[in-house]
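User: Predict structure, ligand magnesium ion.
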Amino acid sequence: MARFLVLAVIVLALLGAALHPLLFVLNLLPFDSRGLTSVLDIAKSFIADLLAWGLIGLIAAMGTLVAFGRWSRRRSGIAKSSRSPGAGSASEPAQGRMVVAITAYNEADAITGVVKDFSTQEGVVKTIVIDNNSEDATAALARRAGATVIQETRQGYGYACLRGLEEALKVHAADVVVLVEGDGTFAGADLKKFQAYITQADIVVGTRVVPGLVEPGSQMDYFFTWGNIAVSALLRLRFWDSQFLGAARLSDVGCTYRAIRRDAVLRILPALEVGQDHFSPHMMLVALDYGLSLIEIPITFRRRIGTSKGASRSMWKGLRVGLAMMWHIMTYQPRRPVLDRGPRSLAPPVPEDVAAGIASGRS
Ligand SMILES: Nc1nc2c(ncn2[C@@H]2O[C@H](COP(=O)(O)OP(=O)(O)OP(=O)(O)O)[C@@H](O)[C@H]2O)c(=O)[nH]1
Ligand SMILES: [Mg+2]
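Assistant: Predicted complex:
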């Protein structure tokens, strides 16, 4: 309900904004357009009034929610609360032993450096390269650099990621699966950040829209930065949470660099089905649908080595991928089996001594 309300507000605001230049142009026309302009003027005022009253209503509703939240918290008493953070957690905190799955399609220029960078990081037990029908020396170079190379013949970024997840599950020594691209855009050193946060969530995804962490000349220009922020907002609307403005705090839906707990991969893998370029938001949708906890962390993002095969091949391709993502988010049908609908998994349980401290009022 809240989701549709917000969408309606966005559409009305866009419509209202479009009426201004339209009326301006109509007034300049050499023929008499007074009939039409007066109707449009009324529509413009109506939308402005509606939005103004909507804003006042929103502020009133927010005030009520804040007051009600405070009142009910005081009434029930936090110390008596039986629900500690993580009560619904589906899994044990991960130990941080990682298998890294690298997707690669004609990445001969970059793959040696990427494999060496990731395989030498602390906690990495295995590095796999998913070779997606490369015609260059990607596979041979990856093997020589020390990776296990798997051939995925179904062409597509999503198929390469899916195969990466499947192959990673075969590595039983690892309890965390990391997905990454073979184009040199991501840094192995950032694995430490994923390792730190994967103890607190089922899935940790990188965000590339953090000022200061994005190398000039990388894929993240104005178009991709704003586009990812806008599509993330749509995804937050799709899985809405009134308090946090979305079930996950997301700003970048297209980042491949992500860590997933092994048990979380086992849960969502059967439901993952997108083989093309909009796989990344698809995986987020399925994860949120299945009640997994998903957090986003800032990562460094570098200029790619070699030529692009994805969204940044051209403006047109970027637009097509963006529209496919938006369409998928809007039309996604929840697929979590009814029997699986347990509580949303949160952070790992609070240690008993800390919980006892909270209960006795110690901070
Ligand atoms: N686009 C695309 N990428 C594939 C495919 N198979 C494997 N990949 C790999 O998946 C990753 C994503 O493709 P990229 O070309 O980096 O696309 P992008 O990240 O949107 O844009 P840039 O990094 O700026 O080029 C790369 O590591 C590719 O080598 C495929 O069929 N299509
Ligand atoms: Mg890339």
